[in-house]
């Protein structure tokens, strides 16, 4: 097998494509021939040693992939050779093969392409957990999606619309705003040239959004939280802008609002039955064509470094996928 090896946490430019011994799955693992893998923001952080998980060196990065099972551990009974699957939350996706714990593997339907499957679990499971579970989103409510043209942002637009909500998308360029409208956003705000608070007042007639979906953090958080509706729910998804904001807690008191953490990985570990049920529903929505990953580009696995460069420059719209089939 071959894999992109991280031997020092100095950034993705120092990753090396190397031949490695073919791994054998442990008793509770399966080995998957990787067809596609997707880039997620933690994949960038981990090569700099800045992610919350710091695997020992050397390691093969890549959290999310799709492919076909080509070996099954002795204690695995619910998966089989030749099965089409996707996985998120392990390590080693930027390779031709990877061994992964069987409980991190999701069988995928024939209708789902490997490209879509590689871009599916992280963004849609996180967003479903946030909007449907943690925020208890109701039909008719208004959702503000920050970073709306990114991977989780595009998923949030689709899932909120599937739940019957009104969606206001916020993004940094007119091009990204146009993408959000094509995905079904009712309104779009270019926050690089519009006053976000003032525009929200106009679009919500002074009431504010019921739910804020925030994977961005940074200096957008406080003005948006000041705009939230009575009994609003502010979903903390991540900090793509880099800064972790400090919100004045008196604002939560004055608005009767909730600050809600969304950590799908630990949710899946602590509440596996609920997490599986959500993935089953999401897979059904995909087959029904109610949701579909937005693919920025599909590049050959050999061009992983170019993919990292595109992510670092914040040019990606939706998800960028690497393919071993190209």
Automatic annotation (TrEMBL):
InterPro entries documented for this protein: ADH-like_C, ADH-like_N, ER, GroES-like_sf, NAD(P)-bd_dom_sf, Quin_OxRdtase/zeta-crystal_CS, Zn-ADH-like_protein
Domain Enoyl reductase (ER): 11-322
SMART domains, per the entry: PKS_ER (SM00829)
Record-given protein name: NADPH:quinone oxidoreductase
Organism of provenance: Sphaerotilus microaerophilus
């Amino acid at each position: 097998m071959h894999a992109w090896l991280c031997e020092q946490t100095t950034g993705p430019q120092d990753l090396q494509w190397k031949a490695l011994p073919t791994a054998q799955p442990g008793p509770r693992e399966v080995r998957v021939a990787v067809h596609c893998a997707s880039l997620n923001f933690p994949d960038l952080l981990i090569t700099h040693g800045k992610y919350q998980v710091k695997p020992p060196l050397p390691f093969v990065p890549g959290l999310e992939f799709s492919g076909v099972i080509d070996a099954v551990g002795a204690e695995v009974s619910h998966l089989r050779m030749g099965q089409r699957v996707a996985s998120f939350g392990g390590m080693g996706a930027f390779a031709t093969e990877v061994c992964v714990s069987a409980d991190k593997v999701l069988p995928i339907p024939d209708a789902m392409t490997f490209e879509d499957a590689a871009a599916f679990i992280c963004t849609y499971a996180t967003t479903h957990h946030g909007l449907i579970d943690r925020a208890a989103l109701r039909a008719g409510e208004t959702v503000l999606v920050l970073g709306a043209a990114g991977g989780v942002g595009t998923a949030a637009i689709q899932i909120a619309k599937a739940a019957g909500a009104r969606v206001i998308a916020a993004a940094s360029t007119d091009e990204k705003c146009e993408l959000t409208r094509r995905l079904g956003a009712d309104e779009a705000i270019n926050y690089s040239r519009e006053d976000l608070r003032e525009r929200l007042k106009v679009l919500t007639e002074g009431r504010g959004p019921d739910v804020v979906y925030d994977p961005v953090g940074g200096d957008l958080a406080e003005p948006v939280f000041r705009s939230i509706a009575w009994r609003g729910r502010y979903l903390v998804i991540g900090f793509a802008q880099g800064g972790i904001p400090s919100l004045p807690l008196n604002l939560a008191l004055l608005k009767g609002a909730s600050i809600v953490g969304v950590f799908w990985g630990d949710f899946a570990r602590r509440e596996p039955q609920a997490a599986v049920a959500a993935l089953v529903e999401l897979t059904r929505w995909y087959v029904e064509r109610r949701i579909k990953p937005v693919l920025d580009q599909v590049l050959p696995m050999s061009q992983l470094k170019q993919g990292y460069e595109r992510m670092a420059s914040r040019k990606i719209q939706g998800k960028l996928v690497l393919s071993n089939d190209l």
